Amino acid sequence: MDGPGTITWEEFVENAESFVNMSNRISDGWEFRGDKIHLQSVPGEAYVARQRKRYITGDYLAPENDDFNFVSEQDPFEADCPIEKPLVTEHHVLWSMSYGVPVLYFNGWKSDFPGINPISVEEAQSLVRNAELRYTELSQAIHPILGTPFLYLHPCMSHELLQVTSNSKNKLISWLSTVAPAALNLELSSEYCQLTVIK
């Protein structure tokens, strides 16, 4: 697919490399993963990824009878000293050969370790910063490179987003900054905007 609402594999790789270079300069943790040797000959075999760990308070990620609730309801210290719980999130940005657009895959784990106690689609939606914002195309799918289950934002609307940002010097950053609020509180530094401006 080619056109104003798409991004070629070559553009994706170029945009991703400048994205990762900027991330390295500002210590933001994004990295390029995949087979870099065959980037030009095998489209879609690499992606950008970042893993973050943070601690959250509150019960919005844990059902009432979940073992993840470390504090019982009768605990008198709960109100004064809420316990923080670990949340590991991982975001992957891949290129879709069939749509010709970037696709955002992500996972979250209510654990200190990736892969242990994954969050559900409903829990992922509850992490969205703005409670009124619900990305209805949130689904679970097999990661096309890793072959493991991930949540992802369906690429059907990405064509329109890329059309709006077609004059951007880095379409990947422009697209990602648009979908970021809907994806597990993915936060992007404002410094990435420097990559989108044509000088």
From TrEMBL:
Superkingdom classification of source: Eukaryota
Family: Belongs to the ATG10 family.
PANTHER family, per the entry: UBIQUITIN-LIKE-CONJUGATING ENZYME ATG10
One Pfam family, short name: Autophagy_act_C
Taxonomy of the source species: Eukaryota, Metazoa, Ecdysozoa, Arthropoda, Hexapoda
Alphabetic keyword roster: Autophagy, Transferase, Ubl conjugation pathway
GO BP: autophagosome assembly; autophagy of mitochondrion; protein modification by small protein conjugation
The name this protein goes by in its record: Ubiquitin-like-conjugating enzyme ATG10
Matching Gene3D superfamilies: 3.30.1460.50
Coiled-coil residue spans: none
GO cellular component, one term: cytosol
GO molecular function: Atg12 conjugating enzyme activity
InterPro entries in the cross-refs: Atg3/Atg10
Extent of the signal sequence: none
